[in-house]
Design goal:
alpha+beta; Beta-lactamase; four-stranded antiparallel sheet; three-stranded antiparallel sheet; 9 strands; globular
Length: 249
């Protein structure tokens, strides 16, 4: 946790341990997508057909809609707002994992990795998890989004716009008591831009909070054996971090 304007975080614990982060790794996909749009390699108005990828369940909205065709911008918006699995796989189908990795390298992103597409069933033939990251890697990535230095200002702004309506404020952001359905630009009070990840034995939340006091960046990741009933304890710790963010702001 730290101010976006400062070079050093206020607090860090285990910042360089690589952990499973579930859907928080989709932040890397959004960065690659934004870079492709800003370079002219990907038209944000191009319509993508969800029928070109396999159906996938769990998080997301597109699977419940009638419309098969959505623009690149709309698909990325679904990833940022609802961590949409079908939209994630659609963007990956367009970009490919290799391009995501090469874009990350070109942008100087380290410590954040997207290993695979989203799968309803993950077997020994597949990568063990969707994505991994260190807290430092995610912290640095979202700090650059906040500061407008992820590649360039337009790329940063595009990622920020896709994340600004995140529906998941259940973790670190919970103590801010914002409306999870309406907390974007134009609303009073602090503004949260974040990306979360949830899986069995995984909780992750990375983001920043803007207020009159400045921009405070945070990243919290927890991994534990899925068979242990630790979710409540983990969420309490996430909320405690959120309380600290609230006090600082």
């Amino acid at each position: 946790m730290g101010w976006a304007s400062d070079a050093e975080p206020l607090l860090e614990i285990g910042a360089d341990v690589e952990l499973r982060v579930a859907s928080a790794s989709k932040l890397l996909l959004l960065a690659a997508c934004a870079a492709a749009v800003e370079s002219g390699d990907l038209d944000p108005g191009r319509r993508l057909d969800r029928r070109s990828v396999d159906p996938v369940a769990d998080s997301g909205i597109w699977q419940h809609l009638d419309q098969d065709l959505l623009t690149v911008h709309d698909v990325a918006t679904l990833v940022g707002a609802a961590s949409d699995n079908l939209a994630t796989n659609m963007l990956l189908h367009e970009l490919g994992l290799d391009r995501v990795a090469s874009t990350a390298e070109a942008l100087g992103i380290t410590g954040v990795h997207l290993h695979d597409r989203v799968r309803d069933e993950r077997t020994s033939a597949h990568p063990q998890t969707l994505g991994t990251a260190t807290a430092r890697g995610l912290f640095d990535l979202i700090t650059r989004v906040a500061n407008g230095t992820l590649g360039d200002a337009p790329t940063s702004a595009r990622v920020r716009r896709w994340l600004a309506n995140s529906l998941d404020l259940s973790m670190v952001a919970a103590p801010l008591h914002l409306d999870p359905l309406s907390h974007g630009v134009g609303h009073e009070g602090p503004m949260v831009v974040n990306k979360t990840g949830t899986d069995a034995g995984v909780r992750a939340d990375v983001g920043f909070v803007e207020s009159g006091s400045g921009t405070l960046v945070y990243c919290a990741i927890a991994n534990w054996p899925a068979e242990l009933a630790l979710t409540d304890a983990v969420m309490q710790d996430m909320h405690a971090i959120g309380e600290a963010v609230r006090r600082l702001l």
